[in-house]
Amino acid sequence: MKTAKEYIESLYRLKLNLYLLGEKVENWVDNPIVRPSINAVAMTYKLAHEPGNEALATTNSTLTGKEINRFNSLFKSTDDMVSKVKLQRELGQRTACCFQRCVGLDGINAVFSTSYEIDRKYGTEYHRRFIDWLKYFQENDLCIAGAMTDVKGNRGVAPSRQDDPDMFVHVSERRSDGIVIRGAKANITGVVNSHEMLIMPTLRMREGDEDYSVTCAIPTDAEGVTLIYGRQPCDTRKLEGGEIDVGNYNFGGQEALIILDNVFVPWNRVFMCGETEFAIMLVERFAAYHRQSYGGCKPGIGDVLIGAASLVASYNGVRAAAHIRDKIGEMIHLVETIHACGLACSYEGGKTMAGNYQANTLLANVCKQNVTRFPYELCRLAEDIAGGILVTAPSEKDFRHPVIGEYIDKYLKGIPDVPTETRYRILMLIHAMTKGQISPSYQTESMHGAGSPMAQRIMIERETDMDYKEKLARSLAGIDVREDVLA
Amino acid sequence: MKTAKEYIESLYRLKLNLYLLGEKVENWVDNPIVRPSINAVAMTYKLAHEPGNEALATTNSTLTGKEINRFNSLFKSTDDMVSKVKLQRELGQRTACCFQRCVGLDGINAVFSTSYEIDRKYGTEYHRRFIDWLKYFQENDLCIAGAMTDVKGNRGVAPSRQDDPDMFVHVSERRSDGIVIRGAKANITGVVNSHEMLIMPTLRMREGDEDYSVTCAIPTDAEGVTLIYGRQPCDTRKLEGGEIDVGNYNFGGQEALIILDNVFVPWNRVFMCGETEFAIMLVERFAAYHRQSYGGCKPGIGDVLIGAASLVASYNGVRAAAHIRDKIGEMIHLVETIHACGLACSYEGGKTMAGNYQANTLLANVCKQNVTRFPYELCRLAEDIAGGILVTAPSEKDFRHPVIGEYIDKYLKGIPDVPTETRYRILMLIHAMTKGQISPSYQTESMHGAGSPMAQRIMIERETDMDYKEKLARSLAGIDVREDVLA
Amino acid sequence: MKTAKEYIESLYRLKLNLYLLGEKVENWVDNPIVRPSINAVAMTYKLAHEPGNEALATTNSTLTGKEINRFNSLFKSTDDMVSKVKLQRELGQRTACCFQRCVGLDGINAVFSTSYEIDRKYGTEYHRRFIDWLKYFQENDLCIAGAMTDVKGNRGVAPSRQDDPDMFVHVSERRSDGIVIRGAKANITGVVNSHEMLIMPTLRMREGDEDYSVTCAIPTDAEGVTLIYGRQPCDTRKLEGGEIDVGNYNFGGQEALIILDNVFVPWNRVFMCGETEFAIMLVERFAAYHRQSYGGCKPGIGDVLIGAASLVASYNGVRAAAHIRDKIGEMIHLVETIHACGLACSYEGGKTMAGNYQANTLLANVCKQNVTRFPYELCRLAEDIAGGILVTAPSEKDFRHPVIGEYIDKYLKGIPDVPTETRYRILMLIHAMTKGQISPSYQTESMHGAGSPMAQRIMIERETDMDYKEKLARSLAGIDVREDVLA
Amino acid sequence: MKTAKEYIESLYRLKLNLYLLGEKVENWVDNPIVRPSINAVAMTYKLAHEPGNEALATTNSTLTGKEINRFNSLFKSTDDMVSKVKLQRELGQRTACCFQRCVGLDGINAVFSTSYEIDRKYGTEYHRRFIDWLKYFQENDLCIAGAMTDVKGNRGVAPSRQDDPDMFVHVSERRSDGIVIRGAKANITGVVNSHEMLIMPTLRMREGDEDYSVTCAIPTDAEGVTLIYGRQPCDTRKLEGGEIDVGNYNFGGQEALIILDNVFVPWNRVFMCGETEFAIMLVERFAAYHRQSYGGCKPGIGDVLIGAASLVASYNGVRAAAHIRDKIGEMIHLVETIHACGLACSYEGGKTMAGNYQANTLLANVCKQNVTRFPYELCRLAEDIAGGILVTAPSEKDFRHPVIGEYIDKYLKGIPDVPTETRYRILMLIHAMTKGQISPSYQTESMHGAGSPMAQRIMIERETDMDYKEKLARSLAGIDVREDVLA
Questions:
Q1: What pLDDT was estimated at residue B487?
Q2: How far is C204 from chain D (nearest CA, A)?
Q3: CB C257 within 8 A of CB C189
Q4: CB–CB contact B21 C398 (8 Å)
Q5: How does DSSP assign B90-127, residue by residue?
Q6: Active site residues of D
Q7: What's the pLDDT tens digit per position in A41-83?
Q8: What is d(CA B245, CA B424) in angstroms, rounded to the nearest whole number?
Q9: CA A206, CA A212: separation in Å to the nearest integer?
Q10: Buried b vs exposed e over A62-85: b needs ≥16 C-beta within 10 Å?
Q11: Which of A162, C402, D299, D459 could join D365 in a cystine, given CB atoms 3.0 to 4.6 angstroms apart?
Q12: Mapping DSSP to helix (H, G, I), strand (E, B) and coil, where does residue B23 land?
């Protein structure tokens, strides 16, 4: 297994075609805007070697029996899924942002079980190919980005009926040695920090969408791939030379737009190609895993926000006030409710035909639905506790200025024993989480990652046994025969 | 193990001193107001014999090895606690009300582990006594009410300092063969349907409160015990001879006020007596179990309400409307969030020194905190869906009236294929759950059972590792040394 | 103007065909179940004579110039509408329930302006007839129930296309001297306490629905009218002889089902007949008035609930606890938010073509939308503060029992200086408002009165100038030309 | 009255000692970070000359009778306060941010009435001085920043007992010709764009705090004044040369830290000096005005967010989806609820002893309490509707790039007829409001401006007549004598 250092070194060998703020970036590994996101991924490698965290961060491969990083594993039990969620909370706590490897992990598991079922129906050999590829991937301890979300164009129109046929990634050419794909994937987490990307369809496919029903793995520096780095709030603060105003100096999330301009994929890396009816199976299995994931990482990030809110209240001298305690109590309650849902859908998971484990679909969707709400309320409460200075504080450069720095140091002080800089630092951390560089990791991603709220809504409705609920009501109301207690 | 029939027969042998609506009730088993609550308890006996539910409803005694009803068992694993929660959901679904045995079950487990630790400190023999008593109890498959809540008088004053020394149950006399206790227990669930009651202290005791730190088991018909049946909304509808207006004809909850007017308890039934510092341990362990319990039963009751809401929407011809689907989706989401919390605190439980298992305290409190909120919103949504007729419908007697009954039948009809009576029945079931006879089981009990919201708030605050959260924030903000990813 | 006494005496002269709990009621004025609802209406007469409240409760008729009860008036200014809302709050405070006259008042104003516009288009003489009728009504200071809600049958089908043509009230025969109407009106507030009822259509009518587009006034004891009294939670407590368990002994709401079995209406009492396109105008104008009304009465009822919650907290000795103060603070906040909306839509109203004033439609709908949410939360908070004893307290008969009454008196005592009965009384008042006899007045009516939540939703969406909002956004985003500050 | 142009020109004449991002700024009027905030203020001057808006934006001076800009006026009626709120909504709609003049307006009115009452008690001449100063101010149509919030140090300690005596602004020297003040004011809105600042105390003063009880007016470029510009999220995007990524190119809010290092104030500009008991009167009157203000501006900003959300839904092709309509409906509902509160507290205001009008304190606090909640939910809903691309879109420079710009143009397109740039622009506007440059104007300022939520909570509790509410409950419960309807 790679160490964090080895992982970062391996990135230098990638020849990405990457654009950021209108310019092609050659040494992206050391780019100040990109680097924090690499560090966040690196933490997933570090934990695998960290005494005390091996049980969470590593496991044995079901394919080779060797010890591997959990992020490249297949879930072999419900306990394994619980470990995933707890690992995610640990990483959320340590980075306070998105550490970007869960989409890959969840994608691997969804493709594993779906390819098995396609083969079973069609006699294809996607599953064997996938196993071969995954062995290679585990051996080399690589990092993969899951690439599901298409750009979608007109949301009301099917992939094959869009005005522009490229609004969903599709097979533009079938060759004897492989396929050529074309299109774009949007909002792709961590792709710039990954060795490969796992292309998956993003929604239900129907007759006519055969070319759009495609799953495959490609290197991030394959020919025809262009990556465009997404802007984040306050991103250029990382270029200013300071380390306070960015709020979270070491870590950050990352999303990019992937352009696939006729990218060749050899057959041994193709895991679905044209089996339209399996697209939705893949999407829903992935979604269940990924909605489970948010029951791990977001509580971890929330822990940091709670800690920061508690500190700023202390620094202001109001930590013991009843309303502050109440608000912090509410924050804990919300964070743990999310985590409880993450744990429950893991424990209540089940085995797929292919042999790996799947999170409980209903509870995973319930988990994510809460995630689309609670982090926003947590941020609101943190802003309440922090005070208005959160968005009106002078800059780090003012604070370091020889003349006015002294004014700031004098006047922004809270309680006597805490240096002004300490208070300033914690305010900037809260700022980063609620408004700044990592707020997409905690807010917008909580909303839209793994599917927007309405997507969960639909699944929750569908996964409930409403007939049974109605039967209960009819029996109790005496519409059906009432249950005889003595029978 | 007793059957439901045997259980009910056993009740006839109890000589309760019971008052209801100002009169002493002799044959309370067949009293129309009481009987539905007996039926609800009887369901816990029925399930133990029901093919397909044995795994949930029965288990092997850790004391005797014999098969027993789960409600008299000690939790021997986290899986055992999960089974408890799933059994509770099943019973909630089948009765749509409180089935009253959980307080006893949770009390048994809390007394078991607490008495062990008292003995360990003081060399007393409470634990052995308790085991002997519990064996007898399991052998005879009896039903026990947990009796914790004191009447409390002035909430701001300690038990031993109240103007009236009887506002908390206490030892009024210590004799060589036992103790005499005095006081009252309020809001006691299911006591009228129980063979015994388990007296437990209700809050933290301090120096001076020795006489108030008492735990013991007494028969419900012991000398000196008076039971006063609590009123419930619409309780006398059960005396009207109909079966629709009550909403839930077969089942109902029950609470009573217990007066203990110098009741003698032999030593072999005394499990704590004067060890003030252990009172809070008992309270908190019981509370954690019981807050877990609500993650089982309330989702079950919620399932019935969802089913009823879905039916009434169908009967009105609006089931497919987007806003109806959205509201029912929200109802499912809330119910499953509670259940997820109930499952999570069970799976994440741990072993006590005495060897039985305890639910995770933090998550159990989080579970209950959600229970103090969501059922109210579920009822609000059900009222929204049901329509105003919910509280303006004519009576069953009007519906059966030869003249106006026809008017009602004609005019309260919804869609063509559903008889008016069917619609009327489902409306009355919803009425019973939101405003009527079983609304205390779903609303007020959700609020105050197992402790009022503020009690959970305090535990949530206390059970969180805030130091660790603050440490995370300090490190990320650079107040402490930042974590080196490469280290 | 009638006094309360004269109003009640006038009721004895009505020959209602009224059914209650399956029996025809002859002396309904003194019926214990009905009487509290009469008292509530009587308060609207009492206030007109009460020193200090005349300005709220009376006004001068725009038709005759004489002083009349405000409940029979036409709004002649926005201030008049503000006075209405303040009068409603006063009455809500004094009765803690629905006082039943607002539907009539709001109906009168809506019919006044709509009949004017029909005449203007069609040259009919509805408006003049209506003025004549209203003069008579004001002269005699009568009470009228607005009767809008039809029973509706299959909600997805238009009135004229229902399987049963009577699911909406309609003209079954047109005669030279008048019309005959047929059908039923459901959930009609206060009709049993009214001298007349104002029949209005309940929804948008379309071509083919001509017979269903009918507005007219008929006496409540007209031939062919049958009234069936709606059940309320805990209604029969009023028959038990006590005065505590009912919670609100003096006052209560009332709804009934009205059967119109071929009722003749002379032309001079017909105010719309066949003008389909005006049905929705009438409905929406009425709805705006009535949604405004809830910004008056419900805050008044809320005031009582807040006062009761404050008292019970005092009696328990916890009034000063931070969390109690916070919850009561929240209750006040919610009540005042509703009232603010009620005031705002009144102040922002405008003049109709006919000359009376109309509440601001958008804000009136916003007001009502909040009413469908906040009273439920207020009840939840009140239950939180009250404690579980709210639904487990023994009955009044137990409390009066010579033996066990003493136990109850001793054990249900709170702080020393407050008698147990005092605490018990306030608990029962809260019970009546949250679960008991007047809970429909505060909860279900808040939900469905003046239209269910979705009805407001639709109006809110429609009444907003979305084009303007989009224009603002386009300009600021630079899609349209940006505004030049210096231009 | 000044035009927008004349206002901006007048700013060049100010010699501010201003720091921004660690550097002294000489030409701050043309500084790209500062300029949008100047434009927002300039809109308040523009509207005064705008045909159709004069009635809102101007009024006649009660001091001179001349037409003046409303922002420098005294409220002479409740209608005047309503006009203020409507003007604020208009300005919020036109700028989508804080236009910074309300603190001054509200401060002027609070000082006017408070100085009157001080003089009345002490025979001082603050009020006359204030009138003189205000006449000068109105004549010259100047702009004033209200400067209330002190830096506060340890929140648990009174001003005169802080370790550092400068944590609250105070009189450091009393001279025959005036006073010298010292300290700092934090989070001061618009001070850099103002000609003067109105220094006011920030909380209740007690014995010993005499030096801290000071109100006065000073020029923003007075000797001893240093201004330090507060950072805002994404502030440096304004330096990048583009105009899309900033979201709101023309307008923005502004806050600064004011250092007062021994600033001399002549007596004719001192309006309170040592009258400790009047500090809280001033604070509370100001607060009531300013909490009212938020019922105007924030709905205006909300209108823009609603418009933007509606547009982005259209551009994505999902505008007609039921859940989108429902979310936009909820947004409208929340915005109008706030505005209704703003209107209600204006209409329900009353006259002060000095003759100007004061907003209703209870309702103004209720208004602001809602403002601390709803804009956050509005932003959450807008993020839900906008989609994840909100925080992952490439930069404007990428979009303008000759090579990858084409990719972006192709792939980020929504429905066919809308150019990609249009969609991108609206996304960036939403981004600016929810996460970017103007998010402090809509979120954090909504939370903490005019006092944090707990401050409103305290006022709401205090302004309610709880005795009356308790009396109502006691009467209805029969604890006090029940009201006799016939009496």
A1: 87
A2: 21
A3: no
A4: yes
A5: HHHHHHSS--S-HHHHHHHHHHHHHHHHHHHHH---HH
A6: 98, 102, 189, 255, 290, 294, 297, 445
A7: 999 999 999 999 999 999 999 999 999 999 999 999 999 999 9
A8: 9
A9: 10
A10: bbeeeebbbbbbbbbebebbbbbb
A11: D459
A12: strand
pLDDT over threshold 90, residue B368: yes
Q: CB count, 10 Å around CB of C343? A: 31
Give CA separation, A329 vs A96, B280, B366, in Å.
Answer: 20, 21, 10
The whole-angstrom distance between C322's CA and the closest CA on chain A is 6
State whether D485 and C344 contact (CB < 8 Å): no
Rounded to whole angstroms, the Cα distance separating A141 from A42 reads 12
Calculate the average pLDDT of chain B.
98
Number of A to B CB contacts under 8 A, please give it: 213
Distance CA(A53)–CA(A47), nearest Å, equals 6
Instruction: Compute the count of residue pairs across chains B and C with CB atoms less than 8 Å apart.
Output: 261
D17 to each of A101, A430, D20, D38, D261, how far by Cα in Å?
49, 30, 10, 17, 12
Question: Could you give the CA distance from residue B126 to residue B128 in angstroms, rounded to a whole number?
Answer: 6
Q: What is the pLDDT of residue B473?
A: 98
Residue-wise pLDDT for C92-102, tens only, equals: 999 999 999 99
Which residues of chain C fall short of a pLDDT of 70? Answer: none
Residue at token pair 């502004």: D254
Residue owning tokens 């009222």: B383
Instruction: Provide the greatest CA pair distance for chain B.
Output: 88
Let me know: does C416 contact D470? Beta carbons within 8 Å: no
Which amino acid makes up residue C42?
A
Q: How far is B154 from chain A (nearest CA, A)?
A: 22
Which residue shows structure tokens 């509870």? A363
Q: Which of C97, C98, C143, C234 is catalytic?
A: C98
A452–D387 CB contact, under 8 Å: yes
Yes or no, beta carbons of B469 and A310 under 8 Å apart = yes
Residue of A nearest to B251 (CA): A476
Which of A275, A261, A252, A293 has its CA nearest to residue A438?
A252
CA-to-CA separations, A62 to A67, A106, A146, in angstroms, rounded: 10, 16, 21
Distance CA A32, CA A39 (A): 11
Question: DSSP for A279-294?
Answer: HHHHHHHHHHHHHHHH
Chain B residue with the nearest C-alpha to that of C369: B384
Nearest to D270 by CA among D81, D151, D396, D125: D125
Closest to A241 (Cα-Cα) out of A233, A253, A249:
A249
**Both structure tokens of C340:** 């603010």
pLDDT value at position D487? 87
Mean pLDDT (chain C, rounded): 98
Helices C361-371 & C453-463 angle (0-180, nearest 10):
150
CB atoms within 10 A of CB D461: 17
Known active-site residue C442: no
Task: Give the total residue count for chain D.
Answer: 487
Three-state secondary structure call for residue B203: coil
Name the residue of chain A whose CA is nearest to C321's CA: A322
Q: How confident is the model at residue D335 (pLDDT cuts 50, 70, 90)?
A: very high
Residues in chain C, how many?
487
Question: How does DSSP assign B220-257, residue by residue?
Answer: TT-TTEEEEEPP-TTGGGGGSS-SSTTSSSS----EEE
Q: Longest Cα pair distance anywhere in chain A, in angstroms?
A: 88
Are the C-beta atoms of residues B225 and B257 closer than 8 Å to each other?
A: no
Residue indicated by tokens 């239900």: A204
Q: Is A54 a catalytic residue?
A: no
Per-residue pLDDT, B458:
96
Buried b or exposed e, range D396-411, using 16+ CB within 10 angstroms: bbbbebeebbebbebb
> Rounded to whole angstroms, what are the CA distances from C146 to A478, C109, C365, D211, D303?
35, 11, 19, 64, 36
Active-site residue C189, yes or no? yes
- The size of chain A, in residues, is 487
